Amino acid sequence: MTIRAEKYHGTANDFLVVPADASVADRAAFAATHCDRETGVRGERIGADGVLFLDLDPTASPVRVTMTLVQPDGSVAEMCGNGARVTATWAARETGAREVIIETPAGDRRAVVQSEGVTVEMGRPSFDPADVPLTHDAGGPLIDQVVDGLSVTAVDTGVPHAVAFVDDVDAVDLETVAPPVRHADVFPEGANVTLAARAVLDDGATDGAPGDPVAFRQRTYERGVEGETLACGTGAVAVVAAAKRTGRLDADGPVRVSPPGGDLVIVVPDDGPATLTGPVEHEFAIDLEVPEV
Asked: Which domains does the chain show, CATH number per domain?
């Protein structure tokens, strides 16, 4: 049996989109089969970072869609910023709406779809140990502390992130340093591991022209994907939130965060939800086999 799926990506963080009522009895097996980077769905990039099973209510005002992200290892992610932008774009195509409420395990998220990109309200980042969550003897937030050889700040942006500020994100062997932190005892539910560095321009400066947003480069090793992804929206928000918490950033305005897949614009205000803005592209539609149970 086959079902119809669509392939989207947000700054190269790529997903298969499947209606929630599609006949997929084993969603974990479906994700493992078609997200595999060597043998999965074909296209410009083989496989995907996850499958978005979407349940749309076009009669709601605003339009509502329930987003369930099944990752390649079969787990369900509580939140995904780039996946939320893809979800909003898909819902807008289906209904013509420009404002969408996305229901996720981390709570409702409002999204606005515009020609220049999609903006998603990402909730308020939290450093509270109960929210991340954390388990460590010292108690309290984990701020610039060494965990398995990497100095990290722990923050919840819908999913847990361990953010490490480094001089050069490309100089770090992420596939080596990240797994011990991702599985560290201090993170009882695991953590995404995100590297961040102030962006350096061609002239050697770390700030752009007057009026340009502050910039960081980012790389993220994602829990559930169990490897590096080309972009991570919750990770980009985590970078800005952690930079503010640790005194590395005092700007309240937009911050440009650049993972390998492209540029994202993040705002983390002191008195409201963070926002994530970035582009979304529809790649193709395809019929995919459903693994037998």
From this structure: 2-123+279-289 (3.10.310.10), 145-271 (3.10.310.10)
